[in-house]
């Protein structure tokens, strides 16, 4: 399996992406903002199709689209009335735009499938380098941010009183979510971003571990799930994103079941 | 001359363009236990936010131990009103630890002194037994104890507690108020504690800060909670009725209590 270059690249890409999605997802689930990440991936879709239309790489369009939407969302803030409705509106408009751009693309069908459901085996060496840069910078920022972010997520009023800038953290965090989403979409596709962003994070959060342990745990679990999906896909010929989604769901359910059994 | 723990002079506060408190002045002596009373919307939370440096002053000055207020002052401990729980899966210990130097950049790593500080804060409020439980499984009173432990982490000299008794049953109210009072005495802290009911605080308070109609009145319970003083403050006929060791503030005419001053704790007071 590892004799093939594309498989080695795929394993590297899966590692880089999952290592970011795990911890970013942990904060996302903690803060109850998973819907935002879903919407960002859809804006990223519009960006990616737009970039394809203009002759750029879909990853650059996806990153740019999701990033600008994330920053705007952060500035709009929690207090904007009907945040769910607004996010939903942005999501549908973005997806509509994506459909329009696809319409003008000549090789629409294969591009659409790759964007929607991911194409990890199609990751090129240059893309891998991009993923490396994105992952390292995301993790560095998150490490720098995680302490005040945890405080502000759990107790915004108290954190504000202690001198934490809630708005700034909101914006930076959503920018991180946007980058992680764009990366994740390379592997799982925009429709299955939840499988790496939310499933490992939700599993770890349920275990009630200390934050630092849980953050490390999400990296481990997300990478394990992504690699597991790759391996299973190799032996079964079913798509990688299907296996990652399935493993994520099963692990989460098993954790819930185990907790029931052991009475927590 | 002693510097007061807190001095507010000629302060005007507004929220959303509306003046909430107009030209209020009061000084709280060191070590005083102050009950902050007033109807909903009278400005209790706004005053606390101003004391934390979070609310811009339209006019006037606020000083804490002679120093003008500023955001992030470690000498001021704050316990916000209880809100929707975030991260209920985390243990009580993790929840309290998140507030320990939570404003610093970096990883949420405690280190040995940090862990000792969290343990000590939990011990101070008798909450060691809550440390290992997920916060979502705790009762309102138990969660209050964790929040109180958080305020103690920085070893503050002024404690601002926003409705710490809300959503507690009457017996717990008295117990919680007494616990806070004992802590304040032991650590020589000045406490401002807002409440919608005066009765659980009777006998513990040194002073009352009463907010109504944009004004503030500070004094002892016997000076402030009187028919004359509150009538002047509300600028409307108000009766203070004392019955069975409890106090009721009642508007004349309608007979409806201005605040739900009906505590069924069955306690007595000095």
UniProtKB/TrEMBL annotation, chain A:
It is a multi-pass membrane protein. Pfam families: ABC-3 (PF00950). It comes from the Bacteria. Keywords: Cell membrane, Ion transport, Membrane, Transmembrane, Transmembrane helix, Transport, Zinc, Zinc transport. GO terms for cellular component: ATP-binding cassette (ABC) transporter complex. It is found in: Cell membrane. The keyword Cell membrane applies. Its main location: membrane. Involved in the high-affinity zinc uptake transport system. This is High-affinity zinc uptake system membrane protein ZnuB. It comes from Acetobacter cibinongensis.
UniProtKB/TrEMBL annotation, chain B:
InterPro entries: AAA+_ATPase, ABC_transporter-like_ATP-bd, ABC_transporter-like_CS, Metal_Ion_Import_ABC, P-loop_NTPase. It holds the Pfam family ABC_tran. Transmembrane segments: none annotated. This is ABC transporter ATP-binding protein. Belongs to the ABC transporter superfamily. Residues 6-238 form the ABC transporter domain. GO terms for molecular function: ATP binding; ATP hydrolysis activity. One of its GO terms (biological process) is zinc ion transport. SMART domains: AAA. Keywords: ATP-binding, Ion transport, Nucleotide-binding, Transport, Zinc, Zinc transport.
């Amino acid at each position: 399996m590892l004799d093939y270059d594309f498989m080695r690249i795929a394993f590297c890409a899966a590692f880089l992406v999952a290592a970011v999605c795990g911890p970013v997802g942990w904060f996302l689930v903690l803060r109850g903002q998973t819907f935002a990440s879903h919407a960002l991936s859809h804006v990223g879709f519009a960006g990616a199709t737009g970039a394809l239309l203009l002759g750029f790489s879909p990853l650059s369009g996806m990153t740019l689209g999701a990033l600008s939407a994330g920053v705007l969302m952060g500035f709009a803030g929690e207090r904007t009335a009907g945040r769910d409705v607004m996010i939903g509106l942005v999501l549908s408009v973005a997806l509509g735009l994506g459909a329009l751009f696809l319409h003008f693309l000549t090789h629409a069908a294969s591009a659409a499938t790759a964007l929607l459901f991911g194409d990890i085996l199609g990751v090129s060496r240059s893309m891998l380098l991009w993923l490396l840069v994105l992952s390292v910078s995301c993790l560095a920022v998150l490490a720098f941010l995680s302490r005040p972010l945890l405080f502000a997520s759990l107790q915004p009023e108290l954190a504000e009183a202690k001198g934490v800038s809630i708005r700034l953290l909101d914006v930076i965090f959503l920018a991180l979510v946007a980058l992680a989403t764009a990366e994740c979409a390379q592997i799982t596709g925009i429709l299955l971003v939840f499988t790496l962003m939310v499933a490992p994070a939700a599993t770890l959060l349920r275990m009630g571990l200390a934050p630092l342990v849980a953050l490390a745990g999400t990296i481990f679990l997300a990478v394990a799930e992504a690699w597991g999906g790759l391996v299973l896909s190799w032996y079964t010929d079913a798509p990688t994103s299907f296996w990652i989604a399935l493993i994520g769901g099963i692990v989460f359910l098993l954790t819930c079941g185990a907790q029931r059994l052991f009475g927590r | 001359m002693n510097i007061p723990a807190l001095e507010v002079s000629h302060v005007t506060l507004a929220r959303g363009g509306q003046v909430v408190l107009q030209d209020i002045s009061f000084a709280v002596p060191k070590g005083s236990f102050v009950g902050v009373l007033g109807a909903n919307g009278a400005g209790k939370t706004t005053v606390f936010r101003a004391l934390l440096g979070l609310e811009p002053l339209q006019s006037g000055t606020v000083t804490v131990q002679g120093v003008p207020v500023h955001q992030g002052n470690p000498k001021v401990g704050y316990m916000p009103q209880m809100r929707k729980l975030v991260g209920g899966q985390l243990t009580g210990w993790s929840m309290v630890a998140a507030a320990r130097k939570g404003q610093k950049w970096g990883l949420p790593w405690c280190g040995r002194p940090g862990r000792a500080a969290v343990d000590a804060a939990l011990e101070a409020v008798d909450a060691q037994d809550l440390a290992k439980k997920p916060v979502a499984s705790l009762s309102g009173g138990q969660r209050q104890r964790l929040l109180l432990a958080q305020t103690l982490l920085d070893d503050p000299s002024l404690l601002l507690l926003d409705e710490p008794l809300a959503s507690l049953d009457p017996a717990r109210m008295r117990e919680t108020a007494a616990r806070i009072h004992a802590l304040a005495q032991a650590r020589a802290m000045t406490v401002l504690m807002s409440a919608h009911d005066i009765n659980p605080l009777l006998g513990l308070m040194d002073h009352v800060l009463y907010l109504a109609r944009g004004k503030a009145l500070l004094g002892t319970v016997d000076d402030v909670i009187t028919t004359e003083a509150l009538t002047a403050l509300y600028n409307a006929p108000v009766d203070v009725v004392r019955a069975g060791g409890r106090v009721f503030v009642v508007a004349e005419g309608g007979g409806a209590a201005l605040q739900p001053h009906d505590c069924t704790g069955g306690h007595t007071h000095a």
